[in-house]
Amino acid sequence: MADSVVRPYLKLVGAQIRSQAQYRTSFILDLLGQTVFTVLDFLTVFVVFRITPALGGFDLSEVLLISALAITGFTIADLVVGNVERLSFYVRTGLLDAMLIRPRRILPQLLAVDFQLRRIGRVALAVTVLIVAASAGVTDWTWWRVLLVVITPLTAAVFFCAVFILTATSMFWWIDAKEFSAAFTYGGRDFTTYPITVYEGVFRRLFGYLFGFGFVSYYPALSLLGRDDPLGGPGWLGWSGLIAAAVAATAAALMWRTGIRHYKGTGS
C-alpha cells in the first residue's frame, strides 16, 4: 500500500534527475555554483573571526560547529522542499490547479515537479564541514554525543522543512509573499549560524525561543561541546531540537491543510 502511494512521486523525482543529467556540463556547472553558496556561508564565519577572537563568548571552532549543524540541516531541507518557495509561480501559471485535479497529494507533487539534484553538492559540503568541526571541537566523545551529532542535522532539516512550508502557505492568501517567506527561511538560517548570545533582548526571545530557531543548533552544540549555557538554560535543552522540529512540523501540516482548503484557484 505504502509502496503504491510513494512510487508515483519517486518516478517524478527520477524523471527530473534524468532530465537534468542529460546536459552534463550544465548540471556540473550548476552543482559547482550551488556548492559555492555554501562555501560563502562558511567563509563568512572565518571573515568575522578575522576581526575578533571570540563571538558571543565562543571561539572559532565552537561557532563553526554551530554553523555546520545549522547549515547541514538547512541544505537538506532546501534539497527536499526548497521548491515549495515557488508556490506563487505555480498559482499564477495555473500549474497548482492542474495538480489539484490529479488523484495524488498536492504537496509531494509540488516537491517532485521541479526537484533540483544540483543542491546535493551543498549538502555534501555541509556534512563534510560538520564532520571536521565536530572532530575538532568535541573532545569527550560518548555514545549519546555521537547520537546527538547525527540526529541534530536531521531534526534541523525537519525544522527548516516546516519553516519552508509554513511561510510558503502564506502565498495562498498573499501571492507576493516570497520576500516575506525568504525573511524566515534564509533569515532563520543566518540566525542559527551563530550563537544566540550575539543577539539581544526582544530579537533573541522572539526568534530564538518563540519561533524556535535557538533550539536548532545552539543548544545541541552546547551539549556536544560540554559547555554550560551562558544564558542559564538547563542542559536538557541540548535535545530540544526534537521537540522544536515536532512542533514546527505539526504547525506546518495544519497550516498547509488550511491553505489548500481555502484555495479558490486562479479563476482561469
Annotate the secondary structure layout.
Elements: H1 2-21, H2 24-48, H3 60-81, H4 87-93, H5 95-100, H6 106-113, H7 120-137, H8 143-169, H9 178-192, H10 201-210, H11 218-225, H12 240-262
Helix pairs in contact: 1-6, 2-3, 2-7, 3-7, 3-8, 3-11, 8-9, 8-11, 8-12
- How many domain regions? 1
**Low-confidence segments:** none
Level of helix content? over 70%
Written as H for each helix and E for each strand, in order along the chain, the element string is: HHHHHHHHHHHH
- What form results from the Cα inertia axes? globular
**Which structural class matches the secondary elements?**
mainly alpha
Radius of gyration, rounded? 19 Å
Count of alpha/pi helices = 12
Give the strand content: under 5%
The pLDDT mean sits at: 87
Biggest β-sheet description: none
Distance between the termini: 36 Å
Number of strands: 0
Give me a quick take on this structure.
The chain has 268 residues and is an all-alpha fold. The protein is built from twelve helices and no strands.
